[in-house]
Amino acid sequence: MEIFKLIYTSMATCTVDNNVLSSIEAVAGEVNADLHVTGALLYSSKHFVQLLEGDRNDVEDIFEKICRDDRHKNIIVNLRASSDERLFPFWSMAVIDLDATENELEYSDLWNSIDLSKAIREKTAGVFMDLFSRLSIRVGQCVC
Ligand SMILES: Cc1cc2nc3c(=O)[nH]c(=O)nc-3n(C[C@H](O)[C@H](O)[C@H](O)COP(=O)(O)O)c2cc1C
Fold first, then answer.
1. What number of other Cβ atoms are within 10 A of residue 79's Cβ?
2. Domain ranges within the chain, ordered by starting residue
3. Which atom of ligand 1 is the closest one to the Cα of 66?
4. pLDDT digits (tens, 9 = 90+) for 20-78
5. Helices 125-139 and 101-112, interaxial angle, to 10°?
6. Which residue has its alpha carbon closest to ligand 1 atom 9?
7. Which atom of ligand 1 is nearest to the CA of 92?
8. Pairing mode, if any, of strands 3-12 and 47-54?
9. Residue 40 CA, ligand 1 centroid: distance in Å
10. How far is the CA of 12 from the centre of ligand 1 (A)?
11. Neighbouring-strand partners of residue 48
12. 3-139: what CATH class?
């Protein structure tokens, strides 16, 4: 089956604490799981970067809802592409708060290796694909 991938970046409009991320994780855990949409959501200093992967219509439907969510703004699509495999087959949505102390050490090398504003500005999809590819190897076999 062809796997459609969508990556976007956005900016939080509210204080993003554990409650906000847990509520996103809970909804995604139900909705995405039902549609067999998988992916990862990273949060760091007001920025979200999310990868959604699955059937094209399902991914676009979920993304439409996400776009209407007033907890973030400046939503910029970085990548819409098809491939033949998932990066996060075991994750309805791996939500990682890079500002949390316990994650800072574990994932900071991934995040710090990218120039976020440059990647957003220049829409360099390869930067985010590379980030998610490397992340998928780290979270690999975990089931959320
Ligand atoms: C950054 C961000 C990422 C989100 N990711 C997802 C997601 O992967 N799946 C999902 O169903 N909802 C996600 N949501 C929540 C949706 O925006 C929305 O609140 C949820 O789907 C419920 O929509 P509804 O009330 O229209 O049914 C996300 C929200 C934000 C702010």
1. 17
2. 3-139
3. 17
4. 999 999 999 999 999 999 999 999 889 999 999 999 999 999 999 999 999 999 999 99
5. 140
6. 28
7. 8
8. antiparallel
9. 13
10. 13
11. 10, 43
12. alpha beta
